[in-house]
Amino acid sequence: MAESQTLQPGADPSLLLVDDDEAFLRRLSKAMEKRGFAVEMAGTVAEGKAIATSRPPAYAVVDLRLEDGNGLDVVEVLREARPDARIVVLTGYGAIATAVAAVKIGATDYLSKPADAADITNALLATGEDLPPPPENPMSADRVRWEHIQRVYELCDRNVSETARRLNMHRRTLQRILAKRSPR
C-alpha cells in the first residue's frame, strides 16, 4: 500500500470533493477527514461551482464527467476564486487530451479512477516540482485499452459500425471485445 503524506499543521484544511458517485464520495470523504482535511462534498457541477464561489477551498478533488456537465467548469471557477488552490482531477476515462485540458486550466494533477485516498492525498500535497509517487496499483494496459474503446463507443451513441470505423478496427472484432467483461 502506498504511504501517504499528511496535511501540515496550520495549513488550511478545506477540501472540496465533487463526484456524482455517491458511495465513492462518502468513502473518500471519510478517508480524507482521517487525514486532517475539512471536507465539503458536491454531487453536481452546479453544487461544486456554488461552493467554489462562496467558500473557495484550499484543495479540491473534481471528477471530470458529472451527470450535469464537465468537472473542468468547477476547476475554472475555483481557479478564479482561489488561484493558490491545489486541484486534482479524477476520471474513469483517462485520456491525454483531457489531462492536458485539465492542467491548462489550472489542475495540479490528474488521476485515473480507481484512485485511492493515499494517491489523492499525495497528489494534493506534492510540493513544488516534486511528482507524487506512482500509484501502487495502476490500471493494466488491457484495462486502459478497454476503457478507451468503451469511451469511443459511448461517444458514437453505441453504434458499433461507427465505433469500429473510428478505431480503425474490424466490426466483428469490436463486437467480440464489447461482449466480454472489462479486464482488471
Automatic annotation (TrEMBL):
CDD domains in the cross-refs: REC_RegA-like
A molecular function (GO) term: DNA binding
Pfam family, one: Response_reg
Matches recorded under InterPro entries: ActR_PrrA_rreg, Bact_response_regulator, CheY-like_superfamily, Sig_transdc_resp-reg_receiver
UniProt keyword list: Activator, DNA-binding, Phosphoprotein, Transcription, Transcription regulation, Two-component regulatory system
UniProt GO BP: phosphorelay signal transduction system
Leader peptide range in chain numbering: none
Boundaries of every Response regulatory domain copy: 14-128
Post-translational modification 4-aspartylphosphate, affected residues: 63
PROSITE patterns given in the database record: RESPONSE_REGULATORY
Functional note: Member of the two-component regulatory system RegB/RegA. Involved in transactivating anaerobic expression of the photosynthetic apparatus. It is a transcriptional regulator that is responsible for activating expression of the puf, puh, and puc operons in response to a decrease in oxygen tension.
UniProt protein name: Photosynthetic apparatus regulatory protein RegA
Native species: Rhodosalinus halophilus
Lineage: Bacteria, Pseudomonadati, Pseudomonadota, Alphaproteobacteria, Rhodobacterales
